[in-house]
Write a structure and sequence with these properties.
Layout (H helix, E strand, L loop, with lengths): L11 E7 L4 E7 L5 E7 L6 E2 L12 E2 L1 E5 L8 H11 L16 E3 L3 H4 L6 H9 L18 E2 L6 E2 L1 E9 L2 E10 L3 E3 L5 E3 L4 H6 L8 E8 L5 H18 E2 L9 E6 L8 H19 L7
Parallel strand pairs: 6-7, 14-16
Antiparallel strand pairs: 1-2, 2-6, 3-5, 3-16, 4-7, 8-9, 10-11, 11-14, 12-13, 12-15
Length: 293
């Protein structure tokens, strides 16, 4: 049974990973007609592309893919390759001169682990080309290849995790790239990645812009853009349960919410609860405690 983000029918995920440079890109492909989408951004240091159009009041409702990238701002170039891949398939927002793919993107700062390498357009294209509905692997893959936690003291490697939460016919999937300044815990409060050193945290002076957790949520339920935004907000709330402290002035946490609209209706309260369960589980699966190189 597929208990990852791709357990939502129509959602595909692909990765490009540079194990040596510890960076990569992960692409989430929507069905050809796109997904209703919105997002929530917390923390003071997000690195994004096409983020403004995800606000509930903006006109464009559907996106065709999401790109999660390493390499800090340099990695945003990977989204160009995803756009090129979709354009070759004739997928995009309809315009008089042809379809225009809508591909929001967000990055993590992974340069502390792997150095100055960053994925570009070719790497984004490669990740999109390999996207499939197979269960999403967890660990140091794709955008999670250089992710780390506990950077208020010293980086401890984390990665990418994915999970699915169900209740009856309702389901929400989550994919998380976990790169916070704080520590990562499981739902029971056990330290998974980081140091658990409150005294060191209180005395720390971390650098801004080097810490971000990225999350993608997906559901088949037919929800509107405002509801997708509220689903993303629920995902942010879940981060505070397993990343401590979360949403700090040094983080740039981003949660995207996608809805294919191809499944049965479900109350937003149910979807929000499932989103939180899925995020917690995805973050737990991302933590592959080992020393940073």
């Amino acid at each position: 049974m597929n208990d990852s983000l791709t357990g939502i029918a129509g959602i595909r995920v692909g990765h490009w990973t540079d194990d040596r440079a510890c960076t990569g890109v992960s692409v989430v492909l929507c069905p050809e007609d796109g997904c209703v989408a919105s997002a929530s951004f917390l923390g003071a240091s997000p690195g994004t592309r096409e983020a403004a159009l995800l606000a509930p009041e903006k006109r464009v409702e559907r996106v065709h893919a999401l790109a999660l990238c390493g390499g800090s701002a340099f990695g945003l170039a990977a989204a160009d390759g995803v756009v090129r891949f979709l354009a070759e398939q004739g997928v995009g927002h309809p315009t008089r001169l042809g379809p225009v793919p809508i591909v929001p993107a967000a990055v993590i700062y992974d340069l502390l682990v792997g150095g100055t390498a960053a994925p570009g357009a070719d790497e984004g294209y490669a990740a999109a080309r390999t996207a499939s509905a197979e269960p999403v692997a967890s660990g140091p893959v794709g955008a999670g290849a250089g992710a780390s936690a506990g950077k208020y003291k010293a980086p401890v490697r984390t990665g990418l995790g994915s999970a699915l939460a169900r209740w009856g016919e309702a389901a929400v999937g989550a994919l998380a790239v976990v790169n916070p300044v704080g520590d990562v815990y499981d739902a029971g409060g056990r330290l998974l990645a980081g140091h658990g050193d409150r005294e060191a945290w209180m005395r720390a002076e971390p650098r801004a812009g080097e810490h971000t957790t990225l999350v993608v949520l997906a559901t088949a339920a037919p929800i509107d853009k405002r509801s997708a935004y509220l689903l993303a907000v629920a995902g942010q709330a879940a981060l505070s349960r397993v990343v401590r402290p979360s949403h700090t002035p040094w983080d740039g946490d981003a949660v995207f919410a996608l809805a294919t609209g191809r499944g049965p209706a479900a109350p937003l309260a149910v979807l929000s609860a499932l989103a939180q369960e899925a995020v917690v589980k995805a973050v737990e699966r991302s933590a592959v405690q080992r020393p940073a190189r």
